[in-house]
C-alpha cells in the first residue's frame, strides 16, 4: 500500500503543475477547486518535503525558479506513471512521444482542437504538454528538451538553427471599465490607474516599450502576467490596461470597453518555434504542420503553410 505521504506529494505535484500552467495560485485554485490559501499551503509543504524552493519569492507572480521548472517536468512523468499503476499495458508505451511547450492562452484556446485532430491521424503517439512562459519554453526548444514551442515572439533574433513561423498577430487594445467615459486612449492612460502586463514577459515588454515611446507617464496600481486576471481587474474598476486581443477574447466581457489604438496599434505575435526539420521526428513534424494548418484555416494566421526558408527568423 502506498504511504499517505506519497499520496499527499502526488496531490501537491498535481497542484504545482496547475500553478505552472495557470500562472498564479488563484487561477490554479479556480481550475482545481482549491482556495488560493490552500494552494499556497500545498506549495509550502511541497518545498519543505523537497528541501529546496521551487518558486522565485521576489517575483510578483507565481514564478518558478530553474529547479522548479525541472520539478514540473519530472512531476508530469511521475504522475503519468502513478496513473498507470497496476495497468497491464504499462510495459507497452507509445512508440513515440512529442514534447510541446505552450503558453497558457494557447492551451486554453485552440490547442485541444489540434491535438484531437492529431490523435485521429497519428496512432501510438503520446503528446506531453509543457506549460511555461515564452522565455523558458524557448530555452527548452533550444536545449532539445522539447520538440516544439508555441510562444510569444521574442524581442531578439533567434539562433540560426531555430525555425520560427508566425501563427497569429494579436492587436493590443486599451481596455477600460464600461462606466469610464472617453475614447482618447492617451488621455485615459495618463488619467486612470494602470494595471500593467508583467514586464518580465515578452508581451509585457512590448507594453513597456510602447509607453516609453509614447512618452506617457502612468499611475501603476498592479502588475501581473495572467491576462484573464487583468481583464477581471479592469472589469471591477481597478484601472485600465493594454492587452493583446487573443483568441479567447474575440469578444470582451460586457463590463469592459476595448479602445482601438489606431495608427499606434502594436501586435503580439504568437508563433511556432522548433529546431531544424532534420532533428525532429516524423510525429513532431506532423504536429507542427497541423498547427500551421489550423491557423491557416481559421483566418487568424497565414493562409498557407510557410515555405521552409520562411521559417528562419533572421
UniProtKB/TrEMBL annotation:
Keywords: DNA-binding, Transcription, Transcription regulation. Residues 10-65 form the HTH lysR-type domain. Pfam families: HTH_1, LysR_substrate. GO terms for molecular function: DNA binding. The keyword Transcription applies. It comes from the Bacteria. PANTHER family: HTH-TYPE TRANSCRIPTIONAL REGULATOR YBHD (PTHR30419), NITROGEN ASSIMILATION TRANSCRIPTIONAL ACTIVATOR-RELATED (PTHR30419:SF8). Belongs to the LysR transcriptional regulatory family. This is DNA-binding transcriptional LysR family regulator. It comes from Rhodoferax saidenbachensis. The lineage of its organism: Bacteria, Pseudomonadati, Pseudomonadota, Betaproteobacteria, Burkholderiales.
